[in-house]
Please model this.
Amino acid sequence: MPDLQAAIAAAYDARGLPTAPEQVIVTPGALAATAVVGTALAGPRDKVLVESPTYPNAVRALRAGGGRIAAIPLDPSGWDLDAVDAALARHAPRLVHVMPDFHNPTGLVLSERERASYGRMLARHGATAVVDEAHHLLGLDDLDSTAAPTPFAAHAKDAICVGSASKSVWGGLRMGWIRAPHALVDRLTRARVGLDLGVPVLEQLVLTRLLQGDLDGVVRAQRERLREQRDALAGALTERLPDWTFRMPAGGMALWCRLPVAAATALSVEAERHGVLLAPGPSFAPEGGLDRYVRLPYAVAAPLLVEAVDRIADAWAVVGAGGARATGGTAPVLVA
Ligand SMILES: Cc1ncc(COP(=O)(O)O)c(C=O)c1O
Model:
């Protein structure tokens, strides 16, 4: 719907990224948007660089056109831009998937300076960024502030942004979008019609109304709820699992926890016996590894999080004590 394209474009304008409505393609979610980009732009001869850890469904979506995946390690304390530069030189990728705003699963934010140098590197290597901004409105530290770094695409003019309503508004509003340079819109649209033909009009009307009205109020309520849940989860972990470490994320929806030993897969198998489904680090590692990490989302109510941590601590007591019951097997966890 033209009104929705215009409202999404206006939101980019307000963030400092001038956007025309025809640069916006509305999709059934950020994941669907990512699959359109993978299908249109990364064929079997193309490399696609992703971060490690990363959001695993995005990796599958980016592979939709047959593109080959390579990973750039992301340090839990931040991006290593020398490693990015080396990976760009080594792989000469067509696409580079980046989550600069509350990266999933680490919650990291790429600084303004890093965005500028990352953008210059991409230009030098002729690679196109796919910027996943699904979490960008979920800043949790200062609820009165909507200040955020300028969009990554302001530093990388060929970048393609994907956005979502499902994190900032409601998980039931299955809508997302692509913001692409003019020159790519036609190609993306052609690829898209092989995947789906449109988003229900009712949902489009709802999102249009929100974007033209009280989106800030809705997002603020989400941020308040997530902040309370993040703090409850962090508090319970500090109390029950003091030898686990994590960096308190400034936003997003999960804690990325480092275990004292590499046993996340074993832990997730044992945790399931205690009624908790955990996503172990290797689920987020496109090239394997990261068994020392576990992602704990704080998307559910605080009392449930506290109970979950109690059960995880019980499971950890089994794994930490030798893991006899938890050896073998892979955790059957589906990361949503
Ligand atoms: C980083 C990231 N990108 C994309 C998605 C998918 O978004 P959507 O629900 O709009 O398809 C998610 C969902 O968890 C996500 O965390």
Q: What stands out?
A: The first helix runs from residue 2 to 14. The longest strand covers residues 47-52. Residues 217-323 form a domain with the Aspartate Aminotransferase, domain 1 fold (CATH 3.90.1150.10).
